[in-house]
Design goal:
Layout: H1 3-9, E1 18-24, H2 29-41, E2 46-50, E3 70-73, E4 85-89, E5 96-97, E6 106-111, H3 120-123, E7 128-131, H4 140-154
Parallel strand pairs: 1-2, 1-6, 2-3, 4-6, 4-7, 5-7
């Protein structure tokens, strides 16, 4: 395999920085497994879960929790890494459309529950709010895949 082919197949951030993920009160643990798989596939540095305690899920086919930190926390705000921009991912009229968004070097993407929203307690400490233009809401794992892919595609 040539080096250009390896680069084309690599799903990693090519610049300085990293992506971390925060899941705020996820409803469905199988979606958490799907998010872990997305994090592994797209080179995220960490996943933190506030709410339900994670148990191994069949949707995490890569056993991603073995490859990067998986934190189970009481408050996501307390685990935002130093010099990392909190980015809420939420369908709102005042949010930035993902195709128009310029991802920060180091971002902590916060995703809300499948049957609710992040609410002001989380949104107040996020610098940016982005949304994915779609005809209907996507499930948690799908949103994480789209956001992480967009980040990688814009910076590779």
């Amino acid at each position: 395999m040539t080096s250009s082919m390896r680069h084309a197949l690599s799903a990693t951030w090519s610049g300085v920085g990293y992506a971390a993920i925060g899941l705020y009160n996820p409803k469905n643990l199988s979606n958490v497994g799907g998010v872990l798989r997305a994090a592994f596939c797209f080179g995220a540095a960490m996943v933190a879960v506030q709410g339900k305690r994670y148990r191994v899920q069949s949707t995490d086919t890569a056993d991603a929790y073995l490859h990067f930190p998986l934190l189970q926390v009481d408050d996501l705000h307390q685990v935002v890494p130093y010099h990392c921009v909190p980015v809420a991912v939420e369908r709102r009229s005042d949010a930035i459309s993902l195709p128009d968004y310029d991802h920060p070097q180091s971002a902590f993407y916060i995703f809300g529950p499948e049957d609710g929203d992040l609410g002001p307690d989380v949104l107040n400490w996020c610098r940016d709010i982005v949304y994915i233009p779609a005809n209907h809401s996507l499930n948690l794992a799908a949103v994480a895949n789209v956001v992480l892919y967009d980040r990688m595609a814009k910076h590779s």
